[in-house]
Amino acid sequence: MSEVRVLANTPWLKSGPAARVLALLNGDGEEARVVGGAVRNALLNIPPGDLDIATTALPDEVARRAKAAGIKCVPTGIEHGTVTLVVDAVPFEVTTLREDTETFGRKAKVAFGRDWVRDAERRDFTINGLSVDADGVVHDHVGGLADIAARRVRFIGDAGQRIAEDYLRILRFFRMNAVYGVGAPDRVGYLACIGGRAGLASLSAERVRMEMLKIMVAEGALVAVTAMADAGLLQAIFGGVTYTGPMAAMISAERVLGLTPSPVRRLGALSVAVTEDAKRVAARLRLTNAEAKALDSMGHRWWRLADMDEARARRRLYRLGEEQYRDRLLLAWARSGGSQDFADNRAAYWREFATLPQRWSAPKFPLKAADFIARGIAEGPALGHVLTLAEDAWLAADFPLDQPALSAIADQTVARFTRDHRL
Description:
By secondary structure, the protein is of the alpha+beta class. Helix content is 52%, strand content 12%. It is built from 22 helices and 10 strands. The chain has helices spanning 17-25, 37-43, 59-68, 116-121, 144-150, 159-165, 168-180, 187-195, 205-216, 221-230, 233-238, 244-257, 263-271, 275-285, 289-299, 310-320, 322-335, 345-354, 356-359, 369-373, 381-396, 403-421; strands at residues 2-5, 32-35, 52-55, 72-77, 82-87, 90-96, 98-104, 107-112, 131-132, 137-140. The strands form 2 sheets. The chain has an 8-stranded mixed sheet. Strands 7-8 form a two-stranded antiparallel sheet. A hairpin with a 2-residue loop joins strand 5 (82-87) and strand 6. Helix 7 (168-180) runs antiparallel to helix 10. The termini are far apart.
């Protein structure tokens, strides 16, 4: 076991809700520490996120102390030794030290204990197996400190066993590498993921969706996804062809344009060539309605954006709206090769039209139903049809807003409709 003082970027250990919980659970023969991701993040000088706490105290003792201190205690996972304490509106999961006696995926039988080493050894990755006490001392029983220094993600103990305990750990392995790792994934862990990939079929679509969307926006997303593709994992997840080249081009385009990484946009570049792909991916990952709609829009005839003039681009921006226009255009750019060399005319073309929403805002269609009722069109389906024809004519005329042009469009639309329907 090695120990090292945490850097001075952990004020939450000295004061505030977390310090109060630790003080509550320490003493009278019991010990509590912050465990997992918060410790890892503190050592990497990034925000800690949620603070999870482990304790030698049994759940009943945790609840007794909380009640005595006037702290709300919720039995959120009592069968696994977890209760949630709420201090100053901040929730803390507090879990009694434990070890798995039998594992069935996520349904494990556990025994409570007082052994910090055994508790650390049952966790997933070495960088998540660290704990820090109230004095700021980091306790490492699994080699996590060395792996954090090397930016290396390794399973604790036998990688195949850790995966068999919960097959979601395959996806978590690649996500952790994408967020915290440097270079190629650990070979032992990588081979274990390949060996266990059939287990992905046992996971719920919701859990897979959550991990995949997190991978999409991680700093090392491309390295992780390429490794997953080489391992045959993407076929198992998406049930179809994937395209790491367009995903690489999408990431580059986002960076060139200064856009916030979008998980759905990157997912589209990776998995969508036509709308049928979008529907399949949305179903397999059980995407939200908004995510599915965005993915479907990206795949809808994106290739038609490869040869536009300014007027046509404006019409498409008007029809699609800013977000869908940009996402579809970026997919077209990515699937065209995604060149970032702006001496290249094609790259200049894509950048010009990708930035159109910053240079031009589509006006609202100015003609109203009253304009056509005044011209003799009765309310009902015919009126809706006339409004659609007028809007098309207004777009074709490049969005005029002056009254003479609008009156001419209204008159011509009514005349055309009347002629075509012999009214």
